[in-house]
Each structure stands twice: as C-alpha cells, then as structure tokens.
Amino acid sequence: MNEPQPVSIDDIMAAFRIFDGTYQRDMVDAALQRREEIVPRLIAILEEIIADPEGFLEQEDRFDHIYALMLLGHFKAAAAHAAIVQVFSLEPKIVDDLFGDHITESLAGVLMRTCGDDLRQMRIMALDRSIDPYCRSAAVQAMGFAVAAGIAAREEVTAFIAELFGQASEEADTTFLSLAAVTLLHLYPDEHMALIRKAFEEEIIDHSVVSLGSFERVLAEGREAALARSNDTWRRRYDWQDIHAAMSGWACFSESDDLAAAAGPQDLIDSGLYGRPQPKVAKKNDQARQKSRRKQAKVSKRKNRK
Question: If DSSP codes are grouped into helix, strand and coil, which group holds residue 303?
Fold first, then answer.
C-alpha cells in the first residue's frame, strides 16, 4: 500500500490560489506547520499585487491574497508589514475590489500583528489622504489595539489622533476622522474632550458613526473600564490563536454559520459601547454586500452581517 505523499509548499499555494467555495482547512493546517517556508511565498503574492494590481484584478477567481493576508497576520510576520502597507495604500478602488470587507474586518488586526512594535508605517498610512479612508482608519484602529496589546503607549496614540483632528480642514469628508474618533473613544479621551466637543460642533465627526453621548458615557465609566473594554475587544477580534475560527465561518465558505456568529463584533463600532452606525459606515457595508452578490459565483470575500 502506497504511503501518502507529504503536502508540499506548492500544493498549499495551489489550493489557496483559486476560490472554489471551500475553506481549505487541511491546507491551512499544513501552512501552519511550514511557517518559515511559506511566509516568503505569501509575501510574494502581495508583491505580485504591488507590481501589477490591474493584472491581478483581472484574475477574478484569485483568493490566495486573502489567505496570505490572514496567515501573515496570524504568524505576526513582521517581514510582511511593509508589503501589506503598500498593498492597502494602492488606489482605493483597486483595494476595495481586491479585499472588500476585509478592509474593515481584518486589516487593523493584520497591521497590528505584523508591525513588530513599530507604528511608523501605520502613522504614515493614516496621514496619507490619497489612501482609502477605511484603510487609513484601519491603521488608526491598529494603533489603538497596539495599546491594548502592550505594544504602544496610550498617550502616544491619543496624541497622534488629536493631531489628526488638527488637520481636519484638509480632509475630503467626515469618514476618516469619525472612525478615528471611535478609536480615541476606546482609549479613554478625557484629556482631548475639548477637541472632541469642538469637532462635534463643527460637524467634523459624523453623529451617525459615533455620538457625543457615547464619549460622555465612557467618561462616566472611567479610564480603567474603558481600557478594559478596549483590551477585551482586541482579544475577541484579533487574538487569532485559532486561525480556523477566524476564517472558516465566512459567508463565502460552506461551513457552519455558527462560527461566524461566534467571531465577535464586526467592527470597533459594534463593541457594545454605543449603537450601530448609520449612513457613512453602513454605506460602505452596503456597497460591499452588493458586490458580494454580484460575484457570489466567483469570489465572495465577506462575513455575515446583520
């Protein structure tokens, strides 16, 4: 009787490459056992996108970039951080077509887990107004989660977010700063409340994303409770000790929907601090949902939303 052949790196990469509606659980397990060998191959997928994003998009059934993003984040692969930043700094429509809801659902965790304790590239990303505002906000969220993970100092990150509001007149709309305000909320905004109140008065922060009342409730709870909540949110969303739990419940895969329900909140805004968002963020989700329906037979890249 012939012995089963060991799975090669090429086998793993081939299984990841084309979306067929099935979560490649066995191949993910194989990748976890071959970390040192597979990380450069996963980074190479991102470099392929950087070199020719339009050409990559033409291959509509490609899905290996999604596996690459999640596995590199799971591995905390610092060698991939620069490439990840470059990919998500591409022209906004290209990034949205490639990654869909992964921008709002996964990117912050990937950035934080791959940064290697260095926030500099995320700062640059957050400041670059040519980048999709949801990618920029993911960089800010990642910095907030870096505080919860003990990677960054709270005061450093809150001061940076306050600086962003100092440049509000240069922003095209309220999307980015409204989402940045959500991260500041999670980090307990006491020393920056004068700035926040002014931003609400000048309609720099969209009330449908986060309300002034949410800030006042967090202040009433106190710093310790707010930071404990932030740490719990990070743990539930981005600890990723079990990569299967993080991926296999996605709506595009034919596995149990129970896993998706157990995955936790879909965004910082769903953390329980305040109500779900209305037009601005919901509009992004609606667009991605419509795109998913159009491409359901090809590549679905999103989780269940309610």
Answer: coil
Q: Do the beta carbons of residue 71 and residue 38 sit within 8 Å?
A: yes
What pLDDT was estimated at residue 2?
61
Average pLDDT, stretch 11-18?
A: 97
Q: Is 18 helix (H, G, I), strand (E, B) or coil?
A: strand
Residue 224: which of 268, 272, 190 has the closest Cα? 190
Give the integer Cα–Cα distance in Å for 105 and 246: 11
Residue 66 contacts by C-beta under 8 Å, 6 or more apart in sequence? 99, 102, 301
pLDDT in tens, 64-116: 999 999 999 999 999 999 999 999 999 999 999 999 999 999 999 999 999 99
pLDDT higher than threshold 50 for residue 301: no
CB 247 within 8 A of CB 28: yes
Q: How far apart are CA 139 and CA 150, in angstroms?
A: 17
Spatial distance between the Cα atoms of 156 and 221, rounded to a whole number of angstroms = 22
Q: Which residue from 170, 182, 76, 193 is spatially nearest to 138, judged by alpha carbons?
A: 182
Mention every residue, 6+ apart, whose C-beta is less than 8 A from residue 290. Answer: none
Among candidates 282, 242, 276, 281, which has minimal Cα distance to 262? 242
